[in-house]
Amino acid sequence: MQRWQRFRTFKQRGEWVELKFMEEAAVRGYPVLKPWGDSFAYDVGVDHVDDTIRVQVKSTSVRNGTGYLCQFHRNHLTRHPYALDDLDLFAAYIIPEDVWYLIPAAVILTPTPKVAVMLCPVTALSKNRYRYEQYREAWRLLGKSRKELAAHARSRRRPASPKMALT
User: Is 120 within 8 Å of 93 (Cβ atoms)?
Assistant: First the structure.
């Protein structure tokens, strides 16, 4: 049994993943903030020069072929979807692979909100499976402003140049 499988509830596992995210961000020099309670749409804040980057931490261990299915919706008790006014970045942890994806919330929530995506830190069957690989271990995004993170969705809608990573 893996150590992450020892948690009795998904809430306990989620709290552990939040701690792992805070450790990873702090080791890289980003000051982390933890909101008190569960009433915010985000789990962790990252102190930025002009503002606080609001990060929602997700995790998955559900492998489906060559990828992992990661869900980007609130818990089953909440019907309100995430909104760009609530958070700036998703941090998705692929537990069995020990890999992080830091994805701007605008990429997941616009133009059509996605409730789940396939993340492929292993060999994919087709190129379109690599849509989110540019966000693998993208810790540099924690240094961006809210405005810069929101611009990622707009830049993804433009036709890709040959020099850009596959999306």
Answer: no
Domains of the chain with bracketed CATH: 3-157 (3.40.1350.10)
Residue 102: exposure state from Cβ atoms within 10 A (0-12, 13-18, ≥19): buried
Distance separating alpha carbons of residues 65 and 57, to the nearest angstrom: 23
Determine which helix (DSSP H) or strand (DSSP E) holds 92, and give its type and residue range: strand 89-94
Tokens of 164: 């850009």
Closest-CA residue to 88 (of 48, 131, 147): 147
Question: Residue 156: what residue type?
Answer: R
- Is there a contact between 147 and 141 (Cβ–Cβ < 8 Å)? no
pLDDT in tens, 85-135: 999 999 999 999 999 999 999 999 998 888 888 887 766 555 555 788 899
Peptide bond into 111 cis (omega under 30): yes
The pLDDT value recorded for residue 159 is 40
Please state the length of the chain.
167
17 with 57: CB under 8 angstroms?
A: yes
100 contacts 141 by C-beta, under 8 angstroms? no
